[in-house]
Amino acid sequence: MKTVRILLLAAMTMMGGAFQSCTDYQDEIDALDYRVTVLENLVKRVNSDIESIRVIIDAIDDGDYITNVTRNDEGCIITFAKQGAIVIKNGKDGEKGEKGRDAQAPDISVVQDSDGQWYWTLNGQYILADGQRLRANGKDGKDGKDGVDGKDGKDGVDGKDGKDGVDGKDGVDGKDGKDGVDGKDGVDGKDGKDGVDGKDGVDGKDGKAVSPQLRINSETGIWEISVDEGKTWISTGTPATGKDGNDGKDADSLIQSVVITTTTEGDSVTFTLSNGVVFSVPLKSTN
């Protein structure tokens, strides 16, 4: 009996250990799932902000304006007259600690150079594509080809000379017949007009700028960037986790604030990016 009791106690101890291990294992699964969800949402959020920045810049270049701003608990919806609507979500402060909650994103932004054009930056440095800085506003389209010159018109044919009149026959009894009247010279044909030169081709329209895209490498946990619409990816060197939001700033938002301002010149919406760049777009009611 003593032997049986010892065996039962041993079995219960093992079972208890097994239950404890299963609980720990489930906690790890929950933590992993939470971390994956956080990172997936962060990737969507960052790429959405990048596209929103591009839309704002294009709106400024195109003389567009905002017709409506709708706010809710998650952020705001900005509606442009030409560009359509964009959604800017409220950023969340970086959270320290467990379950991978301290996710962070690279600092993607734009700066305006002395040439008046806007260029994408990553962590304060220009983003390069084929050795050139990546434009944030629309690229200039190629000039249209010159029209083909019109062909020259054919010269008109000269009119033929009129025939000389026939001499009159000798008159009876020695009277001389009258000389025939010479025919008039034919009128020269008019020269054909020169063909009209073809019109110059219309200049090509501005092309759409290529926006950078971001993703997190599932194996390394490092942010990667693409400047060719996802064909190739390059490491940014920035880890997706491991750093808290600094000084209460929104750790996962590239657009820090959206504020409606009123001046003597009218209302406008002011956007402040994570690197301090500020855009202002007119706000006009369509009512």
Report on this model:
With 287 residues, this protein is of the alpha+beta class. The protein contains one helix and 14 strands. The strands form five sheets. A three-stranded antiparallel sheet has the order 1-2-3. The protein has a three-stranded antiparallel sheet with strand order 4-5-6, with helices on one face. The protein has a three-stranded antiparallel sheet with strand order 9-10-11.
Structure summary:
The protein contains 1 helix and 14 strands, in the order αββββββββββββββ. With 287 residues, the chain is α+β, with helices and mostly antiparallel strands.
**Numbering strands along the chain, what is their spatial order in the largest sheet?**
1-2-3
Query: What's the average pLDDT?
Result: 74
> What is the ordering of alpha helices and beta strands?
HEEEEEEEEEEEEEE
Strand content is 15-25%
Helix content: 10-25%
Low-pLDDT parts are 2-12, 93-101, 140-144, 203-207, 244-250
Class per helix and strand makeup: alpha+beta
Tally of strands: 14
- What is the end-to-end distance? 91 Å
- Total helical segments: 1
The general outline is globular
What features would you highlight for this structure?
287 residues; alpha+beta; 3-stranded antiparallel β-sheet; globular; disordered N terminus
